[in-house]
Design goal:
This protein has 460 residues and is α/β, with parallel strands linked by helices. It contains twelve helices and 21 strands. The structure holds thymidine-5'-diphosphate and magnesium ion (MG).
Length: 460
């Protein structure tokens, strides 16, 4: 009886399927992630087969590249938010599937409802599996804007959603959220890996076939994964991810994948009583506005995608209360912080081994640009000496293992942005090559950490 398996085991991390249980997924190497799900009977899978058949009618033949008509792929659609258009690479591409991910309560539903309200009566089908029509209406009234183009459909069966979309062919479809939708073709519960994969695949096929752009919302778990599988990120064309501290009012939207434009661009929003508002000059909110300078703070000039962004790095160094010192970093890689502290200890003789070190990036920002190293080191030193750095000073350079200060890309653009924001001293590597200083800006070149310490704290 047990010969023909009625269930299949799949990995909750990557979606890999196997006929039997395994302790470790052979595809992604994760332990203890295999879950059992009923196997899909051939007859039930009819819905997806039907779609596949349709898709084949338009996609089944090969075409010479020179003979492909671009007409339907041209013309990007503006979403009514210039910053979001920029993240998308100039607007929505017809027929694209865009995933907006983020933790619950960060503003995904708000943004995706504001798009139809702000975009000049664009014909939008807003599908909600989480809220009722009345709830969507109440939110729309609160957000304000032009409601005329927007149709609301509260449904969780994806075949019904696609059927209606095929009938009405809107200019844009929003699906909130992938975790609440289910397909008849798969027998597991909504939100399971198999369902998420099927729902996303059906929406992708619909988008490609009809040319309707689809915005799909996905929740993210605490450890940063779009709940369920990473495979969702492989299926969609664009992934925009909300970051930031959802207790504060600032929200960061980052493009982490874009088949039609540059990835790792960043847009900043402010959550107000009437929805999200774009912050067109984010540096102004990320650098201190409190006139006087405090110890333990240094301003870094980072590059987010193509745009320079200035923000404050905050450090606190104090004597360890217990035997083992604590090292904790918010928005910055803790291993990199440990490396920088080891460099300070070995190359500049600071005894930080007995101190607690806490590091924080302003505004809930998560940074990965190595150009922030010099600001991190300076903030740590400033807190260690309890000496404030002047507020017109900023930093952009990488720090190497032997304590050398290394140049970073696009120094010129970083300098001009810093100068525009009123900074007067720019610390950079001595090996940066020829860069011009704008009027009123002093460029301070340092070759290594010991000379940085001399320049900052021992006037010579
Ligand atoms: P929401 O878009 O529902 O989050 P998600 O869909 O990502 O789960 O955002 C909810 C939060 O935003 C909630 O905490 C309330 C707040 N909010 C405002 O501050 N102002 C507003 O105008 C709206 C609509 C929501
Ligand atoms: Mg929501």
């Amino acid at each position: 009886m047990a010969k023909t398996p009625k269930t299949v085991w799949y990995c909750t991390s990557c979606g890999n399927e196997s006929p039997k249980w395994m302790g470790r997924c052979p595809a992604c190497g994760e332990w203890n992630t295999m879950k059992e799900a009923p196997v899909v009977e051939k007859g039930v899978k009819g819905s997806s087969l039907r779609t596949r058949g349709n898709a084949a009618s338009s996609e089944g033949k090969a075409l010479p590249l020179s003979g492909i008509d671009m007409a339907s792929g041209q013309g990007r659609i503006s979403v009514g938010f210039p910053e979001v258009d920029r993240l998308l690479g100039g607007g929505l591409v017809p027929g694209s599937l865009v995933l907006i991910g983020g933790e619950p309560g960060i503003g995904k539903s708000t943004l995706s409802l504001q798009i139809p309200l702000h975009s000049n009566a664009m014909k939008t089908l807003y599908v909600s599996g989480e809220e009722s029509e009345r709830q969507v209406k109440m939110r729309a009234v609160r957000l304000g804007g032009d409601e005329s183009g927007c149709t609301v459909f509260c449904e969780t069966r994806i075949e019904d959603v696609i059927e209606l979309a095929e009938k009405t062919l809107p200019d844009l479809m929003v699906v909130d959220s992938v975790q609440t939708m289910y397909s008849d073709g798969v027998e597991s519960t909504p939100g399971s890996v198999a369902q998420i994969r099927e729902v996303a695949a059906l929406l992708l096929r619909f988008a490609k076939r009809s040319g309707v752009p689809v915005i799909l919302i996905g929740h993210i778990t605490k450890d940063g994964f779009i709940a369920g599988p990473k495979i969702l990120e492989h299926i969609v064309d664009v992934v925009l991810q909300f970051e930031g501290d959802n207790r504060g009012s600032y929200r960061l939207l980052r493009s982490i994948k874009n088949r039609f434009g540059a990835a790792s661009e960043l847009a900043v929003f402010e959550m107000t009583g009437t929805g999200l508002r774009e912050v067109s000059n984010p540096s102004e909110m990320l650098i201190p506005m409190h006139g006087e300078s405090l110890s333990g703070a240094a301003v870094a000039v980072m590059l987010d995608g193509t745009r320079p962004l200035l923000f404050e790095v905050q450090a606190l160094v104090s004597s360890a209360a217990y035997g083992t010192p604590q090292r904790s970093a918010t928005g910055f890689d803790t291993r990199r912080l440990n490396m920088l502290l080891a460099v300070l200890e070995k190359r500049a003789g600071f005894r930080l081994g007995t101190k607690d070190v806490f590091l924080n990036m302003a505004g809930g920002l998560k940074v990965s640009d190595p150009a922030c190293d010099l600001a991190v080191v300076s903030a740590v030193l400033s807190s260690n000496f309890d000496l404030a750095l002047p507020s017109d000073m900023c930093f952009a350079a990488e720090v190497g293992l032997s304590g050398e200060v290394r140049p970073v890309a696009q120094t010129g653009r970083r300098i001009s942005e810093a100068s525009r924001l009123g900074f007067r001293k720019f610390y950079m590597s001595s090996f940066s090559g020829d860069v011009d200083a704008p009027e009123g800006m002093e460029l301070v070149s340092v070759p290594d950490i010991p000379s940085l310490v001399r320049r900052l704290f021992k006037q010579d």
